[in-house]
Design a protein that fits this description.
This protein is of the alpha/beta class. The protein is built from 10 helices and 12 strands.
Length: about 325
């Protein structure tokens, strides 16, 4: 666990920093470290080139951290596969192109392990990113994030742009999106279990068998990783930065059930899809580089981070993102 106040901001301390997608979960965690940066959410539609130009003209950033993306859970991705591809490609294309035009010194983008092929060796290594299609449930989103890797490397080779990409695994934390269809597994299960408890339901049905395995990284940890890799990572290829350690969806749900003290039964609807069975990522390159911050970095204990997230949700419900 680390102290936000001890993070060494390096060049980010003195430069004008723009954070796209800055009002979301990771942006909120970054704001604790870098309160002076400019955090932009949906006020600007990044799928529209003129609005991105307007944003850069107003902020005049020297450094950019690109978090903005259209993100959904499995059902949302499958229902709007084309929209997830098109909107993300447009956002990424515009942000990188305008960053080039305005002479941004460095840009860091956050990808996702959804970019990895459905059929690959485990744990997933960076060299295999383009060796096959992403899982069918993440086709549009996965390819759009993969193209961000291609665009960043292309700009580096033709224009000399210092654009880098990092690849976390499943993210969670305070200020997450708790929409029932557009959220990822942790916020979705937290909300479902909490609302089942509030309604006095004796049983709750969840998707699939509960057998798929996932790795998770706490948003506060990623915020620190972003700052450090921005200052120290100079390679053109993406690097895995997620916390290792797999949990089944069933074990995750039981853990949330325990934290929220829900006494009902969890039922699994095996007629509904599981998604990719597992996708563990290899973060050995990241660990070899080592973080250069002032304190010793350790990933936050998963159970403790999950408790913090559940506590934040309960305290702020229903005034949380995604709850209508």
């Amino acid at each position: 666990m680390f102290n936000f106040n001890k993070v060494n901001l390096g060049r980010l301390k003195n430069e004008k920093v723009l954070v796209t997608g800055g009002t979301g979960m990771v942006g909120k965690a970054l704001e604790k470290i870098m309160p002076k940066a400019t955090y932009v959410g949906s006020k600007y539609d990044l799928t529209k080139y003129d609005q991105v130009v307007e944003l850069f003209e107003k902020v005049k950033p020297v450094c950019v951290i690109h978090l903005a993306a259209r993100v959904s859970g499995m059902k949302g991705n499958m229902d709007a596969v084309a929209e997830h591809y098109t909107e993300n490609v447009l956002m990424n294309t515009h942000v990188l192109e305008v960053s080039r035009i305005y002479g941004v010194k460095k840009l860091l983008s956050v990808l996702s392990t959804c970019i990895y092929p459905e059929h690959t060796s485990y744990p997933m290594v960076e060299e295999n990113i383009h060796n096959g299609e992403p899982h069918s449930t993440n086709l549009g989103y996965g390819f759009s994030k993969r193209m961000l890797d291609v665009q960043a490397r292309a700009y580096r080779r033709q224009y000399g742009c210092d654009f880098i990409n990092i690849v976390p695994n499943n993210l969670f934390g305070e200020h997450d999106n708790f929409h029932l269809e557009k959220s990822h597994v942790i916020p979705s299960v937290i909300r479902k279990i909490y609302e089942a408890k509030q309604a006095g339901d004796g049983a709750l049905k969840l998707w699939g068998t509960g057998d798929p395995l996932r790795e998770f990284t706490y948003s506060g940890d990623l915020a620190k990783i972003i700052v450090d890799t921005f200052n120290t990572y100079e390679e053109e290829y993406p690097i895995n930065v997620g916390c290792p350690g797999e949990y089944t969806i069933r074990d995750l749900a039981e853990m949330i059930k325990d934290i929220l003290r829900y006494d009902g039964f969890l039922l699994w609807d095996t007629r509904l899809p599981n998604g990719q069975i597992r996708k563990p990522s290899d973060n050995s390159k990241f660990l070899e580089i080592g973080l250069k911050t002032e304190d010793d970095f350790e990933y936050t204990d998963f159970r403790k981070a999950l408790e913090k997230t559940c506590l934040w949700f309960v305290k702020n419900y229903p005034n949380v993102r995604g709850v209508e």
